[in-house]
Amino acid sequence: MNEGEVLLFLQLKQVGKTFTTEEKQFQVFSNIDLDITENQFVSILGPSGCGKSTLLSMVAGLEEASEGTISLEGSLIKTPGPDRGMVFQQPSLFPWLNVRDNITFPLKGKMTKQEANDHADHFLKMVQLSRFKENYIFELSGGMQQRVAIARALAMDPKVLLMDEPFGALDEQTRHIMHDELMKIWQETQKTILFVTHSINEAIKLSDRIVVMGTRPGRIIADINVDIPRPRERSNLEVIELEKEIMSLLEGEINKVLKEELNQ
Ligand SMILES: Nc1ncnc2c1ncn2[C@@H]1O[C@H](COP(=O)(O)OP(=O)(O)OP(=O)(O)O)[C@@H](O)[C@H]1O
């Protein structure tokens, strides 16, 4: 690298996605350009169907880009890899393994059993589940299961944590607790986080930056740096102002989706 040259961390260049089925071709989005710096917490916000999950899956390497390129520290992303950890809305844990073994499972072959257990215990402490390491998944609440999924992703030491509506299935109270915990984890681990949500308030509460997507055609309609000091209470005037601003940006997009759905 030449002196003065900035190494881009996560870079999406002119990315597009078209799904092809037997009957038709469907372009979800095109021309997505995004540069994300290391340690940034970036939320992708947008109406249902604009392609948030598809975009995240492409960064995960689970979906291929139809156009453009996605690279992490200069390496093109084509397949899933340990440099990217994924947390889904449903935690997809192994019910036949206890909490700790769920976390050590992907570490098999990478370290000794004792090292893996110690490693898992470190992350279980971080997500405040140390007392539950011997429990089975069905014995945990939804919020606790999601914490196991976060610990499992972090234990792989990814460069980027990809989170697809991770708290979407939780009740309001648990979601608030998880927000606070995720903020602590992010500050402690300094991970880069790409977070998909359709909650404006969630995006404002958590993010350094909010990328707002529109739909049909899918595209970025705003890219907002959030410099409101944390913690960001809902009653904070700056939060309320930003919430209004994003709501008005999204209103037209949401109406577009509703109109099309009602006409179908
Ligand atoms: N494998 C697939 N084949 C065909 N179409 C797909 C496929 N996956 C997603 N789509 C379509 O792509 C569009 C974007 O889907 P995606 O799930 O990425 O949207 P989203 O913004 O995450 O929506 P939501 O907020 O409802 O989860 C939708 O119209 C969806 O039906």
Automatic annotation (TrEMBL):
SUPFAM superfamilies: P-loop containing nucleoside triphosphate hydrolases (SSF52540). Keywords: ATP-binding, Nucleotide-binding, Translocase, Transport. It comes from the Bacteria. The keyword Nucleus does not apply. GO terms for molecular function: ATP binding; ATP hydrolysis activity. Residues 10-240 form the ABC transporter domain. It holds the Pfam family ABC_tran. This is ABC transporter ATP-binding protein.
